[in-house]
Amino acid sequence: MIEEIKARLPGDGLIEVPFPQKGYHYALETGADKLPDLAALFDEKRFYLECLLCTDYGEYLELVYFFNKHLAPSRVKVTLKLDPAHPVAPSISAVYGSASWYEREIHEFYGVLFSGHPNMAYLFLHSGIDHYPLRKDRVPVPPEDLARLDSFNPCEQEDSFFINLGPQHPSTHGVLRVVLKMDGEYIEQAEPVLGYLHRMHEKMAENRTYQQFLPNTGRMDYLGAMSFNLGHVLAVERLCSIPVPERAQSVRIIATELNRISSHLLWLGAYLADLGALTPFLYVFDDREQILDVLEGVTGSRLTYCYFRFGGLYNDVDDPFIEGTKAFVKRMWSRFSLYEKLVTGNVIFRNRTRGIGTITQEQARKFGVAGPVLRSAGIASDMRKEEPYSGYDALDFTVPVGGRGDALDTYVVRLTEMENSLRIIEQALARLPGGPYMAEKVPKKLKPPPGDLYHVVETPRGELGIYIVSDESDRPLRMKWRVPSFSNLMVFPELSRGTLLADAVAILGSLDLVIPEIDR
Amino acid sequence: MLDLARANSLWPVTFGLACCAIEMMAAAMARFDLDRFGAGVFRASPRQADLMIVTGTVTKKMAPVLTTLYEQMPSPKWVIAMGNCAISGGPFVFEGQYNLVEGVDLLIPVDVYVPGCPPRPEALLEGFLKLEEKITGSRRFPRVESVW
Amino acid sequence: MPAMVNALLEWASSDAGKMIAGLVGVLAFVVVNALLLTWAERKIAGHMQRRIGPKEVGPFGLIQPIADALKLLGKEILTPARADKPLYYLAPTLIFVPVLVSFIVIPFDATLQVTDINVGILVILAFSSISILSILMAGWGSENKYSLIGAIRSIAQNIAYEIPLLLSLLPVIMLANSFSLKEIVEKQEGLWFVVVQPVAFVIYFIAAVAETNRTPFDLPEAESELVAGYHTEYSGMRFALFFLAEYTNMFIVSAIATTFFLGGYQGPVLPGILWFLLKSYALVFVIIWLRWTYPRVRFDQLLNVAWKGLIPLAFLNLLVTGGLLKL
C-alpha cells in the first residue's frame, strides 16, 4: 500500500525515516499545488488525518500534516513551506472533515489563509485580540482578516430560533458553548464555539523549559492527568534518548491505569447526571475517592498530578500504595455488578442511549475520531497495542469493540475498558520489579538534539499526539498537542443534525469531552 | 436572624470552569458532604441561587459571561473564588499572556478566597464556614489551629 | 365580652364558619407539608446517596426548610425587563388555585373534610388543568427560550397524561357508583379497591407522577438540558411558590391514590386521619424514591408511553371492569 503511494508520487519525494527516533515512518515535502491531490490520494487509501499543525521557523512557516492508518500504522508526515509575509495554502476540508477546524485554528494563531475553506471565523480566540499569538514576532491582524475572523453572528430567522447550550452548564461539561439552530424540538444545525478556557498552553510551552512545562500537562486534561504527564515525559525521553528503569515503567503503568479508571468513573457519573439520574454520580465519586487516596499517598495531589519525571518517577512507591491498590482492585470488581443492575439493565437508560449518535466507520475515519468512541464504531484501534510504550507490550489485555457506534456502545466499551484496566493493574502489580525508580545521570538542563518527534499515548479519551520541535535549546521551538476531545467534538455537528435536544445532550455526553484539553 | 437563615441555606449556582470544578463536585459528594450545611442544592439558574463559586481560570472570552451571570443573581449574593486561577491568574500568568483575566476580583467583588491548585474539598468546606462567619459573625465549628 | 365570644362560637359552628376554619386548616397544612417534604426529600436523597443530608441546621436538619424559606423571603425580587408583566406575575399565584381547591374535597377522616361535594373527583380533575395554564403563562411570560421550551414540553406531557389519569379512576367510580370522595372511601370498608383494580392503580400512579412533573418525567424542568425549564426566570418568593406547588401536588396525587385505591382513612385501632396520612406519605416516599433512582425519559418516548401504552391499557381495564360489573 505504501508502495502504491510511492508509485503515484513524482520522483522520490517519500523518504523513509527511523521510527524510534522520529515517531513517524515517512516524510514527504510537497508544494501548495500538489496538496489537494495528495489528500485525495490518502483518502482513497483510507488514511485518516491525524493532526495538522503549523510551526514558525522565523524565515518560513511550515504546515505539517500527519496521515496515519487505523490498525496498520504507517504515519506519513507531509510538510508544506509557506512564506511568512503572505502565507496561503489550499484547504483540504472538502476531503477530510477534521481539517476544517485545524485550519481555522492555524488561521487565527498564525495568520495562514486557507483558500477554499467555507468558514474562517474565530474558533478559540476572542474578538479583542489584535495579533496572531503563536507567531514568534508580534504580527498584527490586518483589517480584512479581522472582518473575516469576526464573522460568526447567528441571527434569527423565520421558523427557527437559536439556543445556546452553555457556556454555563448545569452539568460537568465545562465551558463549551454550542449554538443550536432549532426547529421546535429538533436541531437543524449545531455549531460549537470554543475558547472559553483557552489557557495558552502551547505558547507557554515555547516560554518554558521542558521541566517547567510538566505541571501544565496535568492541567490540560485534569481527569486523565497521568496520561498527559506520561505522554510528555515519554516524548522528551525519546527525544533525548533517556533510558527508564523497569520499576519506573511498571509503576507508570499502574498509576496511569488507575487514572484511567477514575476518569471513566467520572464520565459514567456525569453522563448519567446529564440523563437525569443523579444518584450514580455519588456512587462513582465514592469509588474515585479510594483511587484518589491511593494516588495521593504517593504523588501528593488528588487531581492534577505531576508525578513522572524525565527518567523515572518523582518518588518511589511504598507498601501503603501497593496494599491500597490491591484493596481497591478487589473492591472494584464487586462494584461492577452494582453498575450493571443500576444502569445497564435500566430500561429508561437503554432507551435513551440505544441508537443515539451512531457513528459509522467512514465518519470516524474522516473526522479522525479517537478513543472509546472510535472503538464503539467497530475499529479496534488502541495506541497501547499499536505503538506500545512503557512496557505495555509485555501485558496481556484485549481491546473492546462495539458493534454499532451508538451511545450505548460507548458506555459498554468504557465499562469493559475499566475491567481491562483492573486486569492490567493486577498483572503489573504481580510483576513489579525491584531496582531504581529513576534513571541515573539525567542532565539537569535538558537540551535535546535538534529535530522533531511525534509521540502517541492512549489517554482515557483517546489517542494523544505530542509533536515537539527542538532547536537544541532548553525550551522547545514548538510543542503541539493533538488532543482526542478536539477530534471527537468535530463529529458532533454531524451526529446531532435532526435529533431532539435531549438526544444532543446524550450524544455530547457519550463523546466524553474535557474542554480544557480542547481549548488548550 | 435573617442572616442566620441566609448563612444556613446558601444555594450555589453551578459555575464550574476548570479543574477546581471537579474538587467542588467532590466536596458536594458523599465523602465531604456539603449538604450538611444546607448548601447542597446546586441550582442551575442564577436567578435562584445566592452563591457563586468561581472555580477555575477566567479567560477574556469568558469574562462577559461571568459578569452577566453575576448580575442575574438577585442580592444578597456572595462569591467564593476557589483556586489559584480565580484568585490571581494561577499558574497561567506569564509574560506575553493574551487571554487571561488575572483574578476574578478584577470583574466582580469576592467575599472569600480559597487558595490551592486545586484546593482540597476540605479547604472549600473551610471557605464555606468562613463565609458563614462573614455573614453571621460567629463560627459554627471552632477553628483548628496547626498541629505541626 | 362573653356575648362577643358566644356570638363568635355560634358563627364558628355554622356552615360558613366551618368552611373558613377548614380553609385556614388547609392552608396551614399546605405550608407544613411543603416544609416537611423539602426536608424529607433532601434527607432521603442523602441517605440513598450514602451521605447524611442536612444535619447541622438544627437537630437532624429539621430547621433547614425554615432557613430556606426565610432566605427566599429575604431575596431581592427581580423581574426580567422584557417579561410580559401580567403573565409573569400571575403564574406563581395561579398555580395554587387547583391545589387549594383539591384540598377542599379530600376526606382526611370521616368527619374532617372541608366540604363533601357530590362530584368531588370531577372538581379535582377540572381544576388540575388550570395548573397547566399557569405553567404556560410562566413559560411565555418569562421571555426566555428555555422557559418556553420547558412550558411547551409540560403542556404536551400534561395533556397526554390527563387521559390515563381519568381513565384509571373511572373503574373505581363505577365500582363505588358515585363521584363523591367520601362515599368512595366508605365503599372500601371491607376490601380496598387496589386488590380489585391493580392495573388501574399502577396506571394512575404513573400518570400522577407525570402530572406532577417529577423524574423520570421531569422534562419541563430538565436541569441538564434546559437550565431550569419554566421557572428559570423566577427568583425569591415567586420561585418558592412554584416549589411549594410542586410538593403540594405530590401530596395531593398521593392523597387521591389513597382515597381511591388504598381505603382512605379506614383502618383498625389508630384514628382515621393517622391512617390517611400514613398511606399518603408512603406513596410520597415512593415518588421521592423514584426521582433519585431513574434517569429522565426522553420527550417522544414519554408521549409514546402515554399514547401507545397507558391509554389502550386503561381503556381495556375500563371495558373489562364494565363487563364484569354488568354480569
Which range best describes the helical content of chain C: under 10%, 10-25%, 25-40%, 40-55%, 55-70% or over 70%? over 70%
Biggest β-sheet description of chain C = none
Oligomer: heterotrimer
**Helix/strand class of chain B:** alpha/beta
Largest sheet of chain B: 4 strands, parallel
Distance between the termini of chain B: 38 Å
**N-to-C order of helices and strands of chain C:** HHHHHHHHHHHHHH
Order of helices and strands of chain B: HEHEHEHEH
The residue fraction in helices of chain B comes out at 25-40%
Strand content range of chain C: under 5%
Strand order of the largest sheet of chain B: 1-2-3-4
- Quick check: average pLDDT of chain C? 79
Portion of residues in beta strands of chain B equals 5-15%
- Cα distance, first to last residue of chain C? 65 Å
Rg of chain C: 21 Å
Q: Look at the structure and give the mean pLDDT of chain B.
A: 83
Q: Count of helices of chain C?
A: 14
Low-pLDDT ranges of chain B: none
Largest interface: A-B, 41 and 37 residues
Spell out the key features of this protein.
heterotrimer; B: alpha/beta; 5 helices; C: 327 residues; mainly alpha; 14 helices
Describe it.
The complex is a heterotrimer of chains A (520), B (148) and C (327). With 520 residues, chain A is an alpha+beta fold. Chain A is built from 20 helices and 15 strands. In chain A, helix 11 (319-344) packs antiparallel against helix 16 (407-430). By secondary structure, chain B is an alpha/beta fold. In chain B, helix 2 crosses helix 5 (121-136). In chain B, 55% of the residues are buried. The model of chain B has no long low-confidence stretch (mean pLDDT 83). The longest helix of chain C has 34 residues, at 15-48. Chains in contact: A-B, A-C, B-C. The interface between B and C is medium-sized, with 28 and 35 residues.
Write the layout of secondary structure elements.
The complex is a heterotrimer of chains A (about 525), B (about 150) and C (about 325).
Chain A: H1 2-8, E1 14-16, H2 19-22, E2 26-30, H3 35-44, E3 48-56, E4 61-68, E5 76-82, E6 88-90, H4 99-110, E7 113-115, H5 143-149, E8 161-165, E9 177-183, E10 186-193, H6 201-207, H7 214-220, H8 225-240, H9 246-275, H10 279-299, E11 308-309, E12 312-313, H11 319-344, H12 347-353, H13 361-367, H14 372-376, H15 383-386, H16 407-430, E13 451-459, E14 462-470, E15 478-482, H17 484-490, H18 492-496, H19 501-510, H20 515-519
Helix pairs in contact in A: 7-8, 8-9, 9-10, 9-16, 9-19, 10-11, 11-16
Chain B: H1 2-7, E1 12-13, H2 19-27, E2 51-55, H3 63-72, E3 78-82, H4 84-88, E4 112-114, H5 121-136
Parallel strand pairs in B: 1-2, 2-3, 3-4
Chain C: H1 2-12, H2 15-48, H3 64-73, H4 85-94, H5 97-105, H6 120-141, H7 145-176, H8 181-186, H9 193-196, H10 198-211, H11 223-226, H12 236-261, H13 272-293, H14 299-326
